[in-house]
Structure formats: structure tokens, C-alpha cells
Amino acid sequence: MLFALALLPLALLLSVGCAYKDISDESLQKLPGPGNDFNIKTGALLAPILRPRVSGTEGNAAVRQHFIDFFHASLPEWRLELHNSSSTTPVSNGKEVPFVNLIATRDPPGVHEGDVSRLALVAHYDSKYTPEGFIGATDSAAPCAMIMHVARSLDAALTRKWRSADMDDFDVEHKGLQILFLDGEEAFKSWTDDDSLYGARALAGDWESTFHTASSIYRTPLDSIELFLLLDLLGSARPRVPSYFKTTHWAYKHMAKAEARLRNMGLMKSSPNHASKVAKRENKKLRVEPEFLPEGNKPDGAFIGGFVQDDHVPFMARGVEVLHMIPSPFPRVWHEMTDDGEHLDTDTVEDWAKLVMAFTAEWMELEGHLDFKAEKRKESTEKSEFIIP
Ligand SMILES: *[C@@H]1O[C@H](CO)[C@@H](O)[C@H](O)[C@H]1NC(C)=O
Ligand SMILES: [Zn+2]
């Protein structure tokens, strides 16, 4: 008890120390798009994920290899780990099915592993067992591709920042970025506590008892996760994501603010007021601007505790703070054969990537280190001049 009390002031100090700095309009303007990489047939990031990838199958291993190849080729500074577990499932006839989570981590150089607090970008990469041939483009192929694009776009800025950093700035030097591509999210038969979240349950359970060395600031890899940002069911047109959790509403508000700024600057391609859309229609009058995150002003009393069962559950049960980017209602294609590449709204996929990139850049305090010259991909050059009324 005494020990716990003694620790309290340090914990408080650390959470207060968590800075979050808006990036400039100029940086928002320059956030790189994916070029052709989200193309559903030929896109280097997305196309290889758009195949059945049920846990334990060849497709699942091939998609995992796609991630590994990507990190080796594009993000060599990231530490890769595979977290393995196995379990029987209701359809495996007593056989153990392997579940393999991919964990990629980029920490500041020279900092002890137990002293880094991380923003975790999370999505599941397995696909649903039924219907046969199910692709799961929003569930969660597109979110995986978004995370890959965000990581590679900000990687050089992290390097620059840490190279230039004032080593005395605790906050700057102790923030890392982590990617969790989780396996076995989907139920094989029907969703129960035992038939779902196979990879997430195994990882959260193992990390709970994986202890950093005694003098570490954070006790376990779970404690090191400052925010678990879970993307799921994203990529259909006109999503609406509520703020699910009171304790992370402040982070939701940051994301909503980034969205509003991107919209005001005409940078959201899926907006009916984007220059490319307005140019294509007769009536040039501005339309109502949609919002992916409409609950920035949700009052405290409105959090009634409803949430969606997903990979965050075993983490949240162990005290990890979660920001869940999943639309409500779910996309119309949810768990249907039509959740395929053809039914993605590519503009919306790009917009989500841009929004998550802006949020991540702000979280990691990358203003002043963003320089996207090397990131120039072939982009349509159209830019919107419209300001949202
Ligand atoms: C985990 O599983 C992968 C894929 O089956 C395998 O390549 C790897 O060697 C395993 N790692 C460990 C530590 O068992
Ligand atoms: Zn699903």
C-alpha cells in the first residue's frame, strides 16, 4: 500500500507531462497521400491484403509476410516481433490453430525499453472464416494499409526529431510509436468470449506478466501503451465514429479538431466540397460538410458506457486507455461478401489515413521535423480553395 502511494505522484507527473502539439496549417497541407498504393488491384500497400486471410491459413501467412517485407524494405529502424499463440476453435475439430500477432516498435534511440511510453496503432489482419472467400476490405485490410502508410510517412520525421532533440526534454525522448497487427479477431462460428479476439487475448495476457527491469518507469509493455488507437471497419463512404470512452475523450477531441482543420483547408478528398467533386457538378453551391468524428462536443454526462466488442477489450480490461475508431452504424457491407475492394470508397480510405497521420504527427510532436520531399508520390495536384461555412 505504501509502495503504491509513493508511486502515485510520479504517475501523475507523467500523465500531466503528456504534451500534444497541433501541427501547422502548412504541415497539414503537405501530409503525403498514398499515391497509387491504396489501389485495390495494383496498390503496393493495400492490394496484397485484399485476399482471404483466415487465421492459420496460407493467405494469413502471406499477408503477414507482406507486412514483414514492408518493414524490412521501408522501415528498417523498426523492431519486429511475432507473438505466437494457439487455440482450438469451434470449427478446428480439436486441432490447435496458430495465431500470430505482428508487433512493430520504433523507440527513441538509447532509451531503456521500460522507460518509453507509446502510441499504439492497432488493426486486425485476419479475415472471417465465413462466408467462404470473404475479403474484409474494411475489416480490416484498409485500416492495416492506412497504418503502414502513416508509419512510413512519419518515419523520417521521427529520425530527424530524435537526432535534433534536446536530450533533457523528457517528453520528447520517451515517446515511441508501435504498430500492432493482430491475428484472430474474428469469431470462427459465432461471437463468444472464447470464440473471438484470439490474438488480442493472448497478447494482452502475456504482456500483463512480461515485466520490464525493476527500475523501469513502466512495469510492463501494457503499461507502456499510453493510447491504444484501434482502427476497424473503416473505408466505406460516410462513416460516423462516436466517442466511446470518457477517459479518452480528450484524444477524440484532438482527432476531431484535426479533422475540422483538414476539412476547412479543403484537404478531405471524400468531402462533397472538395475541389475535385465541385468541379464535376453543375451546381457549385457548397453542400453540408460531413464529419467522421461528430462528437467532439459530447458532454461528460452523455457517456452511457456502450461500446463495441473488439480487439481493445482484453487490453482495456487491464487498464490500457483506448481510442476506438469504428463507425456506428457499421458499414452496410459488414460481414458480407460485398466487403471487398470494389466496395471501398478510396477517397474515404485516403482521408482516414491523412487524419490518423495528422493525429500521430501531433502526438509525436513532429512539427518542425516534417519534410515530405522524399515522400512525394504521384498525386493529383488539385487543391480545394473552399472554406467551409
Ligand atoms: C512464430 O510463428 C511464426 C509463423 O508461424 C514462425 O515463423 C516463428 O518462428 C514463430 N516464432 C516463435 C518465437 O516461435
Ligand atoms: Zn469482422
Automatic annotation (TrEMBL):
Alphabetized InterPro entries for the sequence: M28_QC, Peptidase_M28, QC/QCL
Transmembrane region(s): none
Family, similarity comment: Belongs to the peptidase M28 family.
Organism of derivation: Ampelomyces quisqualis (Powdery mildew agent)
Enzyme Commission identifier(s): 3.4.-.-
Record key words, sorted: Acyltransferase, Hydrolase, Metal-binding, Protease, Signal, Transferase, Zinc
Signal peptide positions on this chain: 1-19
Enzyme class: hydrolase
CDD domains cross-referenced by the UniProt entry: M28_QC_like
Name of this protein: Peptide hydrolase
Tree of life domain: Eukaryota
GO biological process: proteolysis
Keyword DNA repair: no
Alphabetized PANTHER family for the sequence: GLUTAMINYL-PEPTIDE CYCLOTRANSFERASE, GLUTAMINYL-PEPTIDE CYCLOTRANSFERASE-RELATED
